[in-house]
Amino acid sequence: MREQDPKERIKNFNEVPYGYNEDEAVKEALRCLQCKKPLCVKGCPAEIDIPAFIKAISETRFNDAILIIKKTNNLPAVCGRVCPQEDQCEKLCVLRRKGNPINIGNLERFAADWELKNKSQKENTVLAKDCKGTKIAVIGAGPAGLACSADLAKMGYCVTLFEALHKPGGVLTYGIPEFRLPKNIVLKEVEEIEKLGIDLKYNYVIGKIKTIDKLREQGFKAFFISTGAGLPYFMGMEGENLNGVYSANEFLTRVNLMKAYKFPEYDTPINIGKKVAVVGAGNVAMDSARCALRLGAEKVYIVYRRTEDEMPARIDEIHHAKAEGVEFYLLTSPVKIIGDEKGEVKKLVCLKNKLGTPDESGRRRPVPIEGSEFEMDMDTVIIAIGNGPNPILLDTIKGIKLTRKGNIEAGTDTGQTNVEDIFAGGDIVTGSATVIAAMGAGKISAKAIDQYLNG
Ligand code: FAD
Ligand code: SF4
User: Whose CA is nearest to atom 52 of ligand 1?
Assistant: First the structure.
């Protein structure tokens, strides 16, 4: 797909890939073999009828294409952009054996963008039926909560979706940067979901403003918890409390949700200096590194304890970060941050590693090399080593079973917890995963809640 030149794009927050035009989309769609037993569908957690929507694009029936996708996926413009298709539908596409699978994600994005540009939203929206009177509370308006709310509303339930922040989307809004996922697109897709008749309440922290017990008293008959994994982990090393150390979560929230990159138009300042180290190598780390470059850092380093083969980030993300000039310090573990007399970050101290035997994740374990310690001059350190569940809500639910890491224990086929009217899904159950996995969990729980309420 055509994209902004790396030298230009590091000066702005505009989206990097341009998207297909109609000719490009039709040409790509025509490559599809329309398999009788399409393996690609097996790789899609939202079970989109992939050959059918691709056929519609190949015949320039673009509105039909988006209607097919929307039967099972309410966030197609989002998923077309950020889903790891290379590990899902595209991984199973038969043409992959020949080295060039169909670009299913790009085609999904094309169909969704075509609708946003060309079609009156009214014509395509399935408008809400009058709700049947049974009230359901969904907590957290990220992909899991949005997918669950949409399916429940379509079944005729009265859904109230409570969101702690002032905007919907969860990580789609506060985490993933504008240049990967424009926020107007997230908002437009959420507006469509709201039109199904969902009552979306912002600035509403369940666990603080109201508890689940209170909501039960108010007549809510079932609950879906989709509060994500928004509590950042730190390394526990010396110097992490210095000025200039951010969790990736705080850094990205300031940049994306609070629009620090538009300072002073938006009054959230962010001072990152010239040299920035990002610790970790997942999507969150790549997003932080690429934001730091765009905010004017001269040198941005990814510091990762293993090798590129073990990096959890999407291949596309790593490729984009490299093209933009992010430097990779691999087999390197930070051990200490040194500050100056004002309490600001001055140096990052690291150790070199070699790879040892595989750990429980199957990836080879980093083993520190004795005497390999070295220092790097640094102004900012961003810690992107993962997130856990926020306990605010969970602490107020009596008896709910949690895992050792504090995630909710929920049945994989239903999302039902040990408290029978409470269901849960997305990152709050699995830990940090993917947008489509969270949506899939929301859809599964919507069906299970319907079965639960009907005995
Ligand atoms: P979230 O998206 O975290 O949403 C949870 C929502 O619940 C939030 O809006 C939060 O404010 C709200 N909430 C929390 N507590 C309460 C409460 N007590 N009361 C009310 N509301 C509450 N996945 C991909 O597939 N592709 C990617 O490219 C990708 N990139 C990523 C980049 C970053 C920076 C991050 C952080 C994650 C990325 N992911 C990516 C992972 C993906 O975004 C998550 O797996 C997904 O968003 C999880 O969805 P969720 O609905 O479970 O939770
Ligand atoms: Fe088309 Fe590939 Fe799916 Fe076959 S597996 S229908 S070629 S996208």
Answer: 426
